[in-house]
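One thing: could you explain this record?
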Amino acid sequence: MTSPRIAVVGAGIGGLTCARTLQRHGRQVTVFERETSPHARRQGGMLDMHVDTGQAALRAAGLFEEFGALARPEGQELRGLDPFTGEQIFHEHPTGGPGNAPEIDRGQLRGLFLESLAPGTVRWGRPAAGATPTGDGTARLRFTDGTTEEFDLVVGADGAWSRIRPALSDATPAYTGDTIVETCLDDADTRHPASARLVGNGTMAAKSGRTMLSAQRNSGGHIRVYAGLEGPYDWHATAGVDLDDDAAVRHHLLTVFDGWHDSLLDLIRDSDGGFVNRPLHVLPIGHAWDHVPGVTLLGDAAHLMPPAGIGANLAMLDGADLAEAVVVHDALDEAVRAYENRMLPRAAAAAQACADLTAGMAADMVVSANAARRYLTERIQAAQPAG
């Protein structure tokens, strides 16, 4: 039987999970990525891999042992601090056991998948403009340079602002009213020892209403700092802040967090990197589409959610599920239907659970990471069809 022509748009970890799992079973796949190389930008912070989602996807991809060699179980530590006194008021230690969700740098995880693919699988510097179903079960993938290629299946794994989504849905992400401004401390153990001790081995968070300051230890002594702000999408324009002016952004953040404990403010004062503005967006809970032969979606392109620790895990599980459906079904369209029938209810349940957790975090200082994982897992399992 001839292997179907499959294109994955987006070389994030969801799309790469799909590509790796397809190749593991001898299927052909091409990944198109708009970035020009694997190192075109930093890949974000730590990810905790949940047993039934991210870890399950790693097993399907045949990379679980390699993941274990890079993962940091101690990174599951969570500390909650009083924002005004700096005192620790909550401390969750890694528990190990069946619910263990070790952390790994997103960049390391992405590199693990990239290294596992056949040479030439990823075509770098090939931004997609969209996909057009042809009506005969295939799809035409359009690129921003005006060229096109035909595929039996185009998989949109291209994130929140997916160029493939419009082939299936008119939905667009909506701003939540919250923004995260990210910065970092490099070589923290040596250059910023007090902050390194404050953060510990995992994540530290302090909250006052919807204003939050958190920090997360990555590998190599690197600490990522996240300032969570409630306000309009163009908060910086309203405040007269040039996002390219690090000193102006730093000054504004210190004003927002005025009155917070000095140990927390030092995370902003001493930051080494620039500041990255990340307004948070979501797709509607229960986002779905009528099946269209030749095109489907996975990850944030299908179900963009609030950041409650499940998005990357679900994207990976989506990729593994789609690939395995292609392997076990004789007809490609039947495989895609089976995947969507499994993925969409799971995504709707996860999106609702994330919304519930986000509402809880707005009311409480810190939500237990272990409790959040259990809640997400239970909601997702309840939504999955039998078999």
Notes: The chain has a mean pLDDT of 92. The longest strand covers residues 174-185. Residues 175-281 form a domain with the D-Amino Acid Oxidase; Chain A, domain 2 fold (CATH 3.30.9.30).
